[in-house]
Amino acid sequence: MTSLVDPASEAQLLYIADPMCSWCWGFAPTLARLDAQFGRVAPVTVIMGGLRAGETRPLDDCTKGMIRGHWDHVHESTGQPFDYGFFDRESFVYDTEPASRAVVAARLTHGADGWRMLERLHRAFYAENQDITDEDVLVALAHDALGVDPASFRAALRREQTREETRCDFLMAQELGVRGFPALLARKGEQLAFVTMGWRPYEELVKPLARWLDA
What is the CATH number of the domain that holds 36? Predict the structure, then answer.
């Protein structure tokens, strides 16, 4: 597995998320502000958590209702937009592995741009009702977000190294003790600490994180 510890940086933010996690979409503005505040001294590395990786069953009405409730709560708490046309889809399989693999492919080929790819996938899925389980959609979004050559990104998506790295992300999230998304950890040298497990607004995180990084 490629090391996710950045040897060029004494400090680092490790963001464990999933492209199809509504609370991660809700957390996106907070993370963007933290990255703007601390990115030069503690760059963000995204790690895929594997929310529903490998799911094969189509969504039933009960599960759709549960998901819709989550979306309502996220929208009320964060103001992030949602396109509820998603719930008109028939036989949709909520498999988060392809989109997670797309983020890993972006990270492997474009380094820190894994975060930019994740944000684009969030917006496409939640605000634009795009099907980010579809390979063609993932390739188009990578071109949109990163300017990457479509054929090159498609090849990266299909590469066994990318699949293995994605599985390693899922395992790393478990080993870090992450039980829900989003989760943000801060690394300073050999020290590792949770910043948050779950959504919290920027104002609640910025001062404690600044103190920890400066200590």
Answer: 3.40.30.10
Spatial separation of the C-alpha atoms in residues 61 and 113, rounded to whole Å: 36
Instruction: Specify the pLDDT at position 1.
Output: 40
Residues 47-59 pLDDT 10s: 999 999 999 999 9
Residues 86-119: b if buried by 16+ CB within 10 A, e if exposed = beeeeeeebbbbbbbbbbbbbbbbbeebbbbbbb
Q: Which residues contact 58 (CB under 8 A, 6 or more apart)?
A: 91, 92, 93
Residue among 116, 28, 117, 125 nearest 67 (CA): 125
Residue with tokens 């708490």: 77
For 4-24, b/e burial (b = at least 16 CB within 10 A) is bebeeeebbbbbbbbbbbbbb
pLDDT category at 3 given cuts 50, 70, 90 is low
Amino acid at residue number 60: D
pLDDT higher than 50, residue 11: yes
* Domain hosting residue 72, numbered range: 11-214
Token pair listed for 6:
């950045």
Residue 124 corresponds to which amino acid?
A
What is the tally of structural domains in the chain? 1
Nearest-angstrom CA–CA distance, 137 and 154: 11
What are the backbone dihedrals phi and psi of residue 199, each rounded to the nearest 5 degrees, phi first? -70, 135
Residue 125 to residues 25, 99, 112, 141, 175, Cα–Cα distance (Å): 9, 10, 21, 11, 28
